[in-house]
Amino acid sequence: MITVALPKGALLSDSIRLFQSVGLDFSAFQDSANRQLQIEDPTGTAKALLVRAQDVPVYVEYGQAHLGIVGYDVLREKNPLVANLADLQFGGCRMSVAVRAESPYRSVLELPPHGRVASKYVHCAHEYFDSLDLPVEIVPLYGSVELGPITGMSEAIVDLVSTGRTLRENGLVEIDTLFESTARLIAHPLSYRLNGGDIHKWVEQLRSATLNC
Amino acid sequence: MITVALPKGALLSDSIRLFQSVGLDFSAFQDSANRQLQIEDPTGTAKALLVRAQDVPVYVEYGQAHLGIVGYDVLREKNPLVANLADLQFGGCRMSVAVRAESPYRSVLELPPHGRVASKYVHCAHEYFDSLDLPVEIVPLYGSVELGPITGMSEAIVDLVSTGRTLRENGLVEIDTLFESTARLIAHPLSYRLNGGDIHKWVEQLRSATLNC
């Protein structure tokens, strides 16, 4: 039986719809009464784990799930040892640098040297500013990074932006984009090569379902 | 004006009650319609930031908040450069090792060498198993660590336990405790020494309020 790891949050409903289009029904995860984190498809051909987006690559890396769906942002941040098999075209967003609208900065090159940048994506932020040879201090936060510039703790933030509503509500504007992100289909590289659980068949079906969307 | 950082989640209501007992009212954070992450006490003597528990020490360390309330578990895990001023006696819980009830392990010393332990508290887990000279692999997860033993990815977990309900619901039992945790009052060491914003007065009042509880 094949096991897939699905991410809680923004990508869940599209992920469930994609698997439904190839005949696997994990919609029980969307039932508000459901507390189970591990369910079987009603046909008994597949199992799904419901985990945090950042944990999807962990379950795939450790071989607990043959396939997983996760945002490209997580792959860029954690650099896990998984095969990135397909761009699933949904969950589009971008990793951006934002500053207070009333600040004088309109490009990252204008940020003060040794200024501070708050982010949940510490690795992505480091990589980006290093590539520009801009010496900034990354302040690692777990949530509400927009508070960084509001409280004056940091000049800028690096964060994932989809509609931009949170930025607007907090008086922040984007000044640069690190990369665009979409949902990706990932697999354990060895399972994929050895075709455990008929992975190839499912991957082909998921790829065609994506192209026909 | 003094600024305090309050943690979202389990410690929030007791934290607000403590500050109310010394005359500072931040109960607006409990209003479900409130979306603000930064508010002023109605008397205008103090400001509060509402942040993730793990971010409280960051705001204090970087000098954006004079005082903060945070669980001892976060201090143990992140080891921030803050002054731990008082045990506030609420938010009691413990950092425990748990395994599946049907597993043969009844003590950490029985865990298989090079076995796997899933945890959100990677630093605490490493420190603990290193102190016992037990070579285990820590699997870093962001949420639902109980899925580790359930899926067979790990033999054990290290996690924060308060009532034990989550463990029971997932068929897990505690076999060891790393440490007990309660809410702590923290301050920026330098601000505290320099008595910025009349910190000493507030700390003394908060300490007496705690003792009189």
UniProtKB/TrEMBL annotation, chains A, B:
Q: Which reaction is the catalytic activity of this chain?
A: 1-(5-phospho-beta-D-ribosyl)-ATP + diphosphate = 5-phospho-alpha-D-ribose 1-diphosphate + ATP
Q: Which family does it belong to?
A: Belongs to the ATP phosphoribosyltransferase family. Short subfamily.
Q: Which organism is it from?
A: Funiculus sociatus GB2-A5
Q: In which pathway does it act?
A: Amino-acid biosynthesis; L-histidine biosynthesis; L-histidine from 5-phospho-alpha-D-ribose 1-diphosphate: step 1/9
Q: Where is the ATP phosphoribosyltransferase catalytic domain?
A: 52-207
Q: Where in the cell is it found?
A: Cytoplasm
Record-linked Pfam families: HisG
Domain free text: Lacks the C-terminal regulatory region which is replaced by HisZ.
Q: Which domain of life is it from?
A: Bacteria
Q: What does this protein do?
A: Catalyzes the condensation of ATP and 5-phosphoribose 1-diphosphate to form N'-(5'-phosphoribosyl)-ATP (PR-ATP). Has a crucial role in the pathway because the rate of histidine biosynthesis seems to be controlled primarily by regulation of HisG enzymatic activity.
Listed NCBIfam families:
hisG
Q: What is its main location?
A: cytoplasm
Record-linked InterPro entries: ATP_PRibTrfase_cat, ATP_PRibTrfase_CS, ATP_PRibTrfase_HisG, ATP_PRibTrfase_HisG_short
| Protein known as | ATP phosphoribosyltransferase
EC id: 2.4.2.17
Which SUPFAM superfamilies is this protein grouped with? Periplasmic binding protein-like II
Q: How does it assemble?
A: Heteromultimer composed of HisG and HisZ subunits.
